[in-house]
Structure formats: structure tokens, C-alpha cells
Write a structure and sequence with these properties.
Order of helices and strands: EHEHEHEHEHEHEEEEHEEHEHEHH
Radius of gyration: 19 Å
Structural class: alpha/beta
Distance between the termini: 22 Å
Strand content: 15-25%
Shape: globular
Strand order of the largest sheet: 3-2-4-5-7-6-12
Number of strands: 14
Number of helices: 11
Length: 318
């Protein structure tokens, strides 16, 4: 049976991050926070007010911020650096590679405003390649939570993890449907829906779209496993293989380029372990455009209707 969600509230994932960061700071005195002139935008203002002596405003100098964080980690601190996902990954990739990943520093890189749902700021700010950039780095853990509650819990889990973490989340209000009391386990997928006909593997904002697709598909006599891959790296290969073997068909869903994101990771697992018919719902090999988040999700084909269409296509290959 398809799991139903009632009385869903709307909340932006960046607020879940901000609240989770305060909670992590209360739990762990060594947690510190740094940002690059976007304190309010990435919801670090709560931490700055609660722990002013543990907050550093670095200005528009993301590379310098990363170096400061790496140095702080050498002195036992747990630094969280926050900014727009495009600028804390692409703009400073070499800095992250050399002073964080290469030397395995305990730095948490927090990318807000990720994907096309950033909206009207347009292609220059809409990073659709950051997951690929970060998962390619040795030692880097990559986390993409699906709603505000999960982002809250993922932030605390990142503080507890020893090593570099990239935490990716979005700007707009989205359905907040997971249980705040559900433990977040890095590297462990969530099976949100049980089915036998097709496996829908989703991450980030598209998890909710996948659940909506599964609900409508059930009305049409198609039952779907819905797997939330909130950790892109390390990937829960066991969960992917088990579901694919059960259903014999897979659709991946991500608010990211299909190149070197979740889709590529899942395809590699299937090719090596259980070759399975597969389709994907993701960004084509192109840049974004300006528009509202809803308009862009529709325009670039990242809605539940697109997932259902991909399911119908892949079922023809079983």
C-alpha cells in the first residue's frame, strides 16, 4: 500500500538547517559557524545570535572562509561554512580539494539555494553540478535531505561525523513530511513506500514528487518502491540492489544534472550488480533559466507527472 501523508506543512529546508545548526551548537560546544556575507539568506542568523563568540562573518571571500575553517578544525573545532551552493562549491573547488578533502579536515560545507528552485536569480546562481563536483572528492560525504525536518537532523548528524561533509539544501518552502524524531543515519537509505512493480529512487526536493507519483500510480494499478537517497556518498548500494531485484525496473529523480549526480551513481550500482531497465528525471545537459521555482520545476520536467511518464517508459522494458 502507498503511504499517505496528511496535514503537511510547508517549510524551507534552509530553515531546517538553521535550526539544526543551533541544536548542534547546543549539543557540541566545539561547533562553530562561518559565512560569506549571506547570514540571513542561509539561516545562520539564529546561530550568530545564540553563539556570537562562535560565529565568524568572513565577507564575500568564500575561499578565505574555507581556509579559516580548515585551520579551526586543526584546533579541535567543528566548523560549518555556509553560502549559496554555487559559490561554496564551484567558485572555490580548488580550495576545498586542497585544504579540506585532501587532508581530510573536519569541515562541513553547507550549500543553500541549490538547484533550479533558487528561482529568479537565474542560471549563474542555479548550480546543477555541485553533487558531481563534491562526490568526486575522496574523503567527502555528500548529503541531500528531502525536507526541513530531515535537514535539521542531517545537520546534527554532520556535526557528529568525523570528516568533510557537503550538505545540500534549497531555498523555497517545500512540503515538510518526515518525522522530526526519525533518526538520520548517514549512508542509510529510507524506504518511504513499498511496491513490487517499479523502484523510484529520489533525492532532495524530488522525494516529495516521487511520493506523489507513487500515490497516483497506485490508483492506476502500479505499485512503487520509493527510496529516499539522502546520502549520495557513501551510497546505500544494498538498498538499491535489493529494491531493483524486487521490482526489475528503476527510475531516478534529482534536482541536478543527470551527469555525475544520483543518476550516474545508481546506474553504476545497477551495471555492476544487477543490470536493470532504468530511466531518469533530472536536469538535461544545460543551464537553468530565471523563473519561479514552480515554473522552473514544470519547465525542466521535474514534477510527479514526469516521474509517472518515466515509470511507464521503463515498465515497457521489463
Amino acid at each position: 500500500m502507498t503511504r499517505t501523508y496528511e496535514n503537511i506543512t510547508m517549510k524551507d529546508l534552509r530553515s531546517g538547517f538553521g535550526e539544526g545548526l543551533v541544536a548542534a551548537g547546543q549539543k557540541y560546544p566545539n561547533v562553530v559557524a562561518l559565512t560569506a556575507d549571506v547570514t540571513g539568506s542561509v539561516k545562520m542568523d539564529g546561530f550568530a545570535k545564540t553563539f556570537p563568540e562562535r560565529f565568524v562573518q568572513c565577507g564575500i571571500a568564500e575561499a578565505n572562509m574555507t581556509g579559516i575553517a580548515a585551520g579551526m578544525s586543526l584546533n579541535g573545532k567543528i566548523p560549518f561554512i555556509g553560502g549559496f551552493a554555487e559559490f561554496v562549491t564551484g567558485r572555490i573547488y580548488d580550495q576545498i580539494r586542497q585544504v579540506v578533502a585532501y587532508s581530510n579536515k573536519n569541515v562541513k560545507i553547507c550549500g543553500s539555494h541549490a538547484g533550479i528552485t533558487l528561482g529568479e536569480d537565474g542560471a549563474t546562481h542555479q548550480t546543477m553540478e555541485d553533487i558531481g563536483l563534491m562526490k568526486a572528492l575522496p574523503n567527502m560525504t555528500v548529503i541531500v535531505p528531502c525536507d526541513a525536518n530531515q535537514t535539521h537532523n542531517a545537520t546534527i548528524a554532520a556535526a557528529e561525523h568525523n570528516g568533510p561533509v557537503y550538505l545540500r539544501f534549497g531555498r523555497p518552502k517545500m512540503p515538510n513530511f518526515t518525522d522530526i524524531d526519525e533518526p538520520f543515519v548517514i549512508g542509510k537509505a529510507q524506504i518511504l513506500n513499498q511496491g513490487n512493480d517499479v523502484t523510484i529512487i529520489a533525492t532532495g526536493h524530488l522525494v516529495w514528487e516521487a511520493l506523489q507519483a507513487a500515490q497516483e500510480l497506485e490508483r492506476q494499478g502500479i505499485s512503487a518502491d520509493v527510496v529516499n537517497i539522502h546520502t549520495i556518498k557513501p551510497l546505500d548500494t544494498e538498498a538499491i540492489i535489493a529494491s531493483a531485484r524486487k521490482t526489475g525496473a528503476v527510475v531516478t529523480c534529482e534536482e541536478h544534472s543527470f551527469i555525475n549526480g544520483l543518476t550516474d551513481s545508481v546506474a553504476r550500482v545497477l551495471a555492476l550488480n544487477c543490470p536493470t531497465p532504468m530511466r531518469y528525471v533530472a536536469m538535461a545537459d544545460r543551464f537553468g533559466e530565471s523563473g519561479t521555482p514552480a515554473q522552473l520545476m514544470e519547465h525542466f520536467g521535474m514534477k510527479s507527472a514526469n516521474i509517472m511518464a518515466a515509470v511507464r517508459e521503463v515498465l515497457k522494458q521489463k
